[in-house]
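note to self — DONT lose this again. spent like an hour looking for the file last time. sequence + predicted structure for the chain T wanted, 109 res
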Amino acid sequence: MKALHNRTQNLQAQSVATDLAARVAGIFEEYPILCGFSVQRRSTLTKERAVASLQGELCLADVSVSTWPGFHVTLEFYNEIACTLLELMDEQPEAFDFLSGRTFARTMN
């Protein structure tokens, strides 16, 4: 019985991880200027690093973009990323644990 429970948990975790990877890939595809971001607990961040609240203690942080001089990222840009992550957490509450403390970066091929 315990083995079945463990297998079910592993399948759920794999499903969340797959969905998370797809959502993050979608974020990078939608925003070509985005280089990376992290999701951190508010208690571990300075005010300057936290750019948007997510769920509970989680915040979108450390957003890095590659743009031209003088370009400033808007609050709307941060909120679009946050909304995508919030949708995932609403659909799959287990995603909270997958996101906390993670850094996501664009991969170059």
